[in-house]
TrEMBL record:
<dbReference type="InterPro" id="IPR050855">
    <property type="entry name" value="NDM-1-like"/>
</dbReference>
<feature type="domain" description="Metallo-beta-lactamase">
    <location>
        <begin position="17"/>
        <end position="209"/>
    </location>
</feature>
<dbReference type="InterPro" id="IPR001279">
    <property type="entry name" value="Metallo-B-lactamas"/>
</dbReference>
<protein>
    <submittedName>
        <fullName>MBL fold metallo-hydrolase</fullName>
    </submittedName>
</protein>
<dbReference type="Pfam" id="PF00753">
    <property type="entry name" value="Lactamase_B"/>
</dbReference>
<dbReference type="InterPro" id="IPR036866">
    <property type="entry name" value="RibonucZ/Hydroxyglut_hydro"/>
</dbReference>
Length: 228
């Protein structure tokens, strides 16, 4: 795992497939996504390297119901008493009650999707609080939940207006450029989500895959939205 500083209070954990983020409000910690099933120990080590106690993880917000985003969430939550939050539309998938919805793949996405399936299956995971969008969560000066459908029906983004930070989950990706995320179940819906996220004019954008965007973020997001 790579540990990457995005902002003094924000770090990224980069895994073989996917990534998660740690937001620090003093000693209180929030995880955005939980990596795959094998990520718990690496996340704990990363938290300690930063001088924090994993027992201060208060919540784990799952951006959507894909295996690389919530695999270790319940292990960490059970160990440290954290609350797990996810959108109500993806909760049945995360709990193992429904299968993952099949994406509408473009031809060039197929080999990437096959690679993604090499990530180990996530276990059925509890969700303590179901989100619908519009909630304000108690971290980062007030983190607004934005329903961001398209990648999955219950994808969410998190916007921290006080800090100008936006977590997009897989609604947006950063590869050679910032772009619409891949493997969408509803490509038109995903494009509409990208336009709504760009309209937030963030200063820092944290993606589910790819390097965070820390320079000219609002303009880059607008360009990506215009090309979606």
């Amino acid at each position: 795992m790579d540990l990457v500083e995005v902002l003094p209070q924000l770090h990224m954990f980069r895994f073989r497939i996917g990534q998660a983020y740690l937001w620090r409000d003093g000693a209180d910690l929030t995880l955005v996504d939980g990596g795959d099933i094998a990520s718990a120990a690496a996340i704990e080590d990363g938290v300690r390297v930063l001088g924090n106690d994993p027992a201060r993880i208060r919540r784990i917000v799952i951006t959507h119901g894909h295996r690389d985003h919530y695999g270790a969430a319940q292990e960490l939550a059970d160990r440290y008493g954290a609350e797990i939050l996810a959108h109500a539309l993806d909760t049945p998938v995360i709990r193992g009650e429904r299968p993952v919805p099949e994406p509408d793949l473009l031809d060039w996405e197929r080999p990437l999707y096959a690679q993604g399936l090499t990530c180990p299956e996530a276990p059925p995971t509890r969700v303590d609080r179901e989100l619908t969008g519009g909630e304000v969560l108690p971290f980062g000066g007030g983190a607004r939940v934005v329903h961001a459908p398209g990648h999955t029906p219950g994808s969410v983004a998190l916007h921290l207006p006080r800090h100008g930070v936006l977590f997009t989950g897989d609604a947006v990706a950063s590869a050679e450029r910032v772009m619409l995320g891949v493997f969408n179940v509803d490509r038109a819906g995903a494009a509409a989500t990208l336009r709504r996220l760009a309209a937030l004019a963030p200063r820092t954008v944290c993606f589910g895959h790819g390097d965070p965007l820390t320079e000219d973020a609002a303009a880059v997001m607008e360009t990506a939205a215009n090309g979606a």
